[in-house]
């Protein structure tokens, strides 16, 4: 493993999550775990009436990369739609796999040193996967309320 991946920028991200606690009034919640390192990230969201993320909470029990990725997600997730989160998740996975362009997510290139370290990719994807699932769950719960 290359220590080049553990840059000062990634280390700084890992300790600067703006939403480090679970969200008490979440309408969607999802947990993702990396089987390789045991990292675990839970993302809670509450959607606004416009279907966009109005609030987010996280619980991060992860390696440095999982923590940094969670911070990057948390910094920019509020105001995003379910579709935007799905796109971000898919673009990140494709980019890490060498099958897509750099995702449009702000500051995502901080993970560029890890592109060749495929064993680390699951840790980087955790927060984005959990956020997309939590937002979809919240949307579905809102849709169920409307149908009743």
Break the fold down into its secondary structure elements and pairings.
Blueprint: H1 8-14, E1 28-33, E2 40-47, E3 53-61, H2 64-77, H3 82-96, H4 121-147
Quick gist of this model?
This protein is of the alpha+beta class. The chain contains four helices and three strands. The longest helix has 27 residues, at 121-147.
Which structural class best describes the helix and strand composition? alpha+beta
Report the count of strand segments.
Answer: 3
Bulk shape = globular
Task: Note the gap between the termini.
Answer: 53 Å
Q: What low-confidence regions span 5 or more consecutive residues with pLDDT below 50?
A: none
Largest sheet: 3 strands, antiparallel
Give the neighbour order of strands across the main sheet.
1-2-3
Number of distinct helices: 4
Overall mean pLDDT score? 93
Strand content: 15-25%
The portion of residues assigned to helices is 40-55%
Order of helices and strands: HEEEHHH
Radius of gyration: 15 Å
Which terms summarize this structure?
4 helices; 3-stranded antiparallel β-sheet; alpha+beta; globular; 148 residues
Molecular structure report:
The chain is of the alpha+beta class and 148 residues long. It is 43% helix and 16% strand. It contains 4 helices and 3 strands, in the order H-E-E-E-H-H-H. It has helices at residues 8-14, 64-77, 82-96, 121-147; strands spanning 28-33, 40-47, 53-61. The chain has a 3-stranded antiparallel beta sheet, covered by helices on one side. Strand 2 (40-47) and strand 3 (53-61) form a beta hairpin. The longest helix has 27 residues, at 121-147. The termini are far apart. The mean pLDDT is 93.
